[in-house]
Design brief:
The structure holds 3 protein chains of 3 kinds. By secondary structure, chain A is α/β, with parallel strands linked by helices. Chain A is built from 12 helices and 18 strands. In chain A, the strands form 3 sheets. Chain A has an 8-stranded mixed beta sheet. In chain A, helix 1 packs parallel to helix 8, helix 4 crosses helix 11 and helix 5 packs across helix 8. The longest helix of chain A has 16 residues. By secondary structure, chain B is of the alpha/beta class. Chain B contains 13 helices and 23 strands. In chain B, the strands form 6 sheets. In chain B, strands 1, 2, 4, 5, 6, 7 and 20 form a 7-stranded mixed beta sheet that branches. In chain B, strands 9-16-10-11-12 form a 5-stranded parallel beta sheet. In chain B, helix 4 packs across helix 5, helix 7 packs antiparallel against helix 8 and helix 9 packs across helix 10. The two termini of chain B are 30 Å apart. Chain C is mostly beta strands. Chain C is 6% helix and 25% strand. The longest helix of chain C has 7 residues. Classes of the chains: A alpha/beta, B alpha/beta, C mainly beta. Chains B and C meet through strand 3, strand 9, helix 3, strand 12 and strand 15 of B and strand 1, helix 1 and strand 5 of C. Strand 16 of chain A pairs antiparallel with strand 23 of chain B.
Chain lengths: 422, 488, 121
């Protein structure tokens, strides 16, 4: 069975759905293909948007940093590395798209992705935390309009459930949150409403090429002809890349999350980031506590040590949680790249192919801008943000091969809950 | 650092107890874990200190059988380590059993494992089924057996299978006015149902006796009937009931009747607890007559994962008699595989249980053919009826999810939040799965499950933070493979 | 085969909770008496009973209201898996009454939705 469209998007996660949406909005004929057992593996791990926080190393970054310091791999006193300035701008521009997007997607798809203006609080437990936070506060790239330094008393007033054993907190005011599943659903449903074809539960087996150009996407159930294929396959992007003869240096990076029972709303109004964990109360009342940064191939199981550490970290930050019950623990696989920046745009030597992958910790946040940029690239329009920093060509061959060696494709795709997380 | 044990049994009901007894007898030390305060599972529940039996004969036949099993257990107990009030949260690769009690938690690595987690009452949604006063047959039994409390004053019992006759008799004996017993299948559980020679099986004998008692008391057992609706403002005040078609059990609403009651007891069979067998990686199959999804086991009750057995109702609902024998087979085989007894000795010890299992098979098949849940019961629910009790998701919302593209249980869950509450899908997945099969014309395998995630039972963060035998660093050193040039 | 119809007979008027005791005597020996407080009112219970059993014995059937549709719930599964029977016990919300043993002086309150948590550190 053969079909033809202008663009085929491979991957039905938040990135793929965003690309499909923006592309079909541009008037392109779009087909979105998603693999079997779409379990939202990566969406599942998303805490909050946190553009500023993530960019300057908070959230998972600061937790990981603490682990590295404990191991002696990084000198005490050196803070988590901040991502390059272009990425921060990229993230902030995407972040600013959300309010309008929430309305737009709701109107088109009927789905509300629960966009919530919250803020992110970095709790400073000790001298080391203060030493880390001070330079951020003093030289914040966005000035003090978006950041506050809170005293313990101010913190206690804002968040009565948070521990009093702190030196204070840094508050990031533009860091919001969404329901990651609903965001992808909303993009997909809106894309579908506008005429995109969605092909679920279908494995892509090959890319048909002719004279260095992709001409079609081959699946189990037929071929999909296209002018352009977009690789939005997340943690599985390397597989699709290989089909075009490309080495995509994405490797799965596992993050585990502990989720509590539903608690009364606004027991936490802001999201919290500490050196042990982050906490975010979702719309339905559950508090999610994350996370870890582990390279274990495609193994999406959970580990007792992570469960223990995350639980202890949560209790330290919000003491009453010792009495709250855990409803579920799960993990997701972030698509990691060697420099933590996404891989967007064309690849040298292959025509009719665009990358939209490697979003690591910030896929949810940067899905709108990624979708927009890809749609612009496909339709030959000028891009709303320069993509040079994100091209595949920035990686040396050595970087690509190292990344490949790290990928352990021992994925138990038949075992329940292994790669596909809910 | 992890504690290890040669043989761990999860679940202290008849299957688990029998497995522990046989292992211990064969010289294999055993660790038995159960979440209750005492052993016996659901069927052999008994009053717990300081509530003590004063007149055992008034506590029913199950009490006596449970006591006999406990006596047998006590005789073997010096080789059995018993952990009560302890929940198993997860079984992961390498048979790591994650457990938690009120304030502590830990991991036990088991060389061999029996998962004997039993089953729970199958939920059948109908309008008003969430009202206080609608209870499962299992729940009613627990209240009577362990607390000696009347769950209500005037009851309607509905469901299918011999156990509804049994629970109705128990209710009657303790002074609850039972207005009727409604059996959805076209049988009345009188002696005509089973051949005489089956009278040796306690289940059969019990059912006949119960039927006689109900008959003498003038309590009607109506075949081909079921409950349609529970009504009341704060709690059950009346029930609507009526006949169903013999083939499909579709409600014949034009013949509905009303009766004033304050208790509706629902006994529509059981669903195996398969969370742990799924998490442990065992292969499963869907078998509607045996309660739904269940682990695939061979004649020695071994699952597809080497070293893991599954016995009792948790491996397919077949009742306590079967559970006992399966447990014995598991315990004996584990002892054989651990080298505690020879193969010859194991075969000798297994011969009796295997023979009884064969003899029971026909009885079980007969019961299964009578009582497998027909899809007509799905018509009881109206658009406003909750399919998910925890998250309060209505049938109309599940229909909307289907229209928006949800084609399996997982997708339905992500659209509607069905199955995301504290019961983790137990009380909504079976009926919602059946509903999806029906509207899509698909099989249960295609409709799938709501994937269980640990912890399988709720546990506080405080308890998890104290987990013993667990190191501080995350497993699989994350630092070695990272190449970010110093950046994180 | 019987075709006897169950006839509609109204239940007796509701008896005040204090005077109801749906406990069955004879088969078991109960422990000592304890006093528990249900929504402020004192209620007699016995050592070793679950809160659910004590409440049912005292005639109390509707235990709480749900979060979304504010509907009444009581004991459904009786074995701790459905979470319908939860109430706020000694200030802790969402505690399963069918799994909790009574204690002298225990305070039991019905809750709306997720209840109210004490969150001060």
């Amino acid at each position: 069975m053969n079909h033809t469209s202008d663009v085929v998007v491979v991957g039905g996660g938040v990135i793929g759905c965003a690309v499909a949406y923006y592309a079909v909005k541009q008037g392109l004929r779009v087909t979105l293909i998603d693999q079997p057992k779409r379990g939202r593996a990566t969406s599942a791990s998303a805490g909050g948007l946190w553009p500023l926080g993530e960019s300057i190393g908070l959230g998972c970054g600061v937790i990981f940093h603490k682990a590295m310091v404990a191991k002696g791999t990084v000198a005490q006193g050196a803070g988590p590395a901040q991502l390059p300035r272009p990425f921060l701008d990229f993230a902030l521009q995407s972040n600013s798209m959300f309010p309008a997007l929430a309305e737009e997607l709701y109107e088109t798809s009927g789905i509300d992705f629960e966009y919530e203006r919250t803020s992110l609080l970095f709790l400073m437990y000790d001298d080391a935390d203060v030493a880390f936070a001070r330079p951020l506060w003093e030289s914040c790239p966005c000035g003090h309009s978006l950041i506050d330094w809170l005293t313990p008393e101010e913190l206690a007033k804002l968040e009565p459930a948070v521990t009093r054993e702190v030196r204070g907190a840094l508050r990031f005011n533009g860091d919001d949150q969404v329901n990651p599943y609903r965001l992808a659903d909303a993009f997909r449903a809106a894309a579908s409403r506008l005429g995109a074809t969605v092909v679920p539960h279908t494995e892509v087996t090959a890319l048909r090429m002719q004279s260095g150009r992709v001409t079609a996407v081959q699946t189990r159930y037929g071929q999909y002809g296209c002018d352009v294929v977009v690789n939005a396959a997340g943690a599985w992007a390397p597989e699709i890349g290989r089909m075009a003869g490309l080495d995509i240096p994405v490797r799965p990076v596992r993050g585990q999350i502990v989720g509590t029972e539903a608690l009364p709303e606004n027991i936490l109004s802001a999201c919290l980031s500490t050196t042990d964990c982050y906490l975010a109360q979702k719309k339905h009342g559950e508090i999610i506590i994350g996370s870890t940064t582990e390279e274990v191939g495609y193994d999406a199981s959970v580990t007792p040590s992570a469960i223990k550490n995350l639980s202890a970290g949560a209790i330290r930050a919000v003491p009453f949680l010792a009495r709250a019950r855990v409803k579920r623990v799960w993990s997701g696989l972030r698509p990691g790249t060697p420099d933590e920046l996404p891989i967007l745009g064309p690849a040298d030597d292959v025509a009719g192919y665009l990358n939209a992958c490697g979003h690591f910790r910030t896929g949810i946040l940067t899905s709108p801008i990624t979708g927009l940029l890809l749609a612009e690239m496909i339709s030959g329009k000028p891009v709303s943000f320069p993509v040079d920093t994100f091209l595949l060509s920035r990686f040396s061959p050595a970087e690509r091969h190292l990344a490949e060696a790290q990928v352990d494709t021992r994925g138990n795709s038949d075992a329940p809950g292994a790669c596909y997380v809910n | 650092m992890t504690e290890s044990r040669p043989f761990v049994v999860i679940g202290g009901g008849p299957a688990g107890m029998a497995a522990a007894i046989e292992a211990a007898r064969s010289g294999l030390p055993c660790t038995l874990i159960d979440e209750a305060r005492s052993l016996g599972g659901q069927i052999y529940r008994r009053p717990i200190d300081p509530l003590t039996p004063a007149d055992p004969s008034a506590l029913g036949d199950d009490f006596a059988r449970g006591e006999r099993l406990r006596t047998e257990f006590t005789a073997a107990a010096n080789r059995i380590e018993v952990l009560l009030n302890t929940f198993v949260l997860d079984v992961s690769d390498g048979h790591d059993v994650m457990w938690a009690s009120e304030r502590a938690s830990g991991i036990i690595r088991a060389e061999q494992l029996v998962i004997a987690t039993g089953a729970y009452d199958r939920p059948i949604p109908f309008p008003g089924w969430t009202l206080p006063g609608v209870m499962t047959a299992g729940g009613v039994q627990v209240l009577i057996k362990t607390m000696q409390v009347k769950p209500g004053r005037r009851a309607l019992v509905a469901g299918t299978g011999p156990l509804i006759v049994g629970v109705a008799k128990r209710l009657h004996e303790i002074g609850v006015e039972v207005v009727a017993v409604l059996e959805a299948a076209s049988v009345s559980w009188s002696r005509a149902v089973f051949p005489e020679e089956w009278a040796e099986w306690s289940l059969v004998y019990d059912t006949w006796r119960a039927w006689d008692i109900l008959h003498q008391a003038g309590i009607p057992v109506l075949p081909g009937h079921t409950v349609f609706e529970a009504r009341g403002s704060q709690q059950v005040q009346s029930a609507i009931y009526g006949p169903v078609t013999p083939q499909d059990w579709r409600p014949l609403r034009h013949q509905a009747q009303s009766v004033d009651v304050d208790l509706i007891v629902c006994g529509f069979g059981f669903v195996p607890n398969t969370e742990l067998t799924v998490l442990a990686g065992c292969r499963h199959q869907y078998c509607h007559e045996l309660g739904g999804w269940m682990p695939v086991i061979d004649e020695l009750v071994r699952t597809s994962v080497p070293g893991i057995f599954a016995a009792g109702d948790g491996a397919g609902v077949a009742g306590a008699l079967v559970a006992l024998e399966e447990g014995r087979v598991a315990g004996t085989t584990a002892a054989e595989q651990a080298g505690a007894i020879t193969r010859d000795e194991a075969e000798k010890r297994r011969a009796g249980p295997l023979q009884r299992l064969t003899a029971l098979a026909e009885l079980r098949r007969t019961l299964d053919q009578i009582s497998w849940i027909r899809p007509g019961l799905l018509e009881l629910a109206s658009p406003d009826t909750l399919l998910c009790r925890c998250e309060e998701v209505r049938l109309s919302e599940v229909q909307a999810a289907f229209e928006q593209g949800a084609r399996d249980l997982q997708a339905t869950k992500l659209f509607t939040r069905l199955g995301m509450g504290p019961c983790q899908g137990r009380n909504c997945a079976p009926s919602t799965g059946m509903y999806l099969c029906k509207v899509m014309g698909r099989t249960a395998e295609e409709v799938g499950r709501i994937n269980p995630r640990p912890p399988v039972k709720p546990v506080t963060l405080g308890s998890l933070a104290q987990m013993s035998n667990v190191g501080q660093a995350p497993a699989g050193d994350p630092l070695d493979a990272v190449n970010t040039g110093g950046a994180l | 085969m019987h075709e006897k119809r169950a006839h509609s007979v109204p239940l007796p008027d509701r008896i005040p909770a204090r005077d109801i005791d749906s406990r069955i005597d004879g088969a078991i020996q109960r422990g000592g008496v304890v006093d528990i407080f249900l929504d402020g009112q004192s209620l007699r219970a016995y050592e070793g009973e679950t809160v659910a059993a004590a409440l049912l014995a005292g005639g109390r059937c509707a235990l709480r209201r749900t979060a979304r549709w504010s509907e009444p719930r009581g004991v459904y599964c009786g074995i701790g898996t459905c979470f319908d029977c939860v109430m706020t016990i000694d200030g802790e919300p969402s505690v399963r009454t069918c799994q909790t043993i009574v204690r002298d002086g225990m305070r039991i309150e019905s809750q709306q939705g997720e209840g109210v948590w004490r969150t001060e550190p």
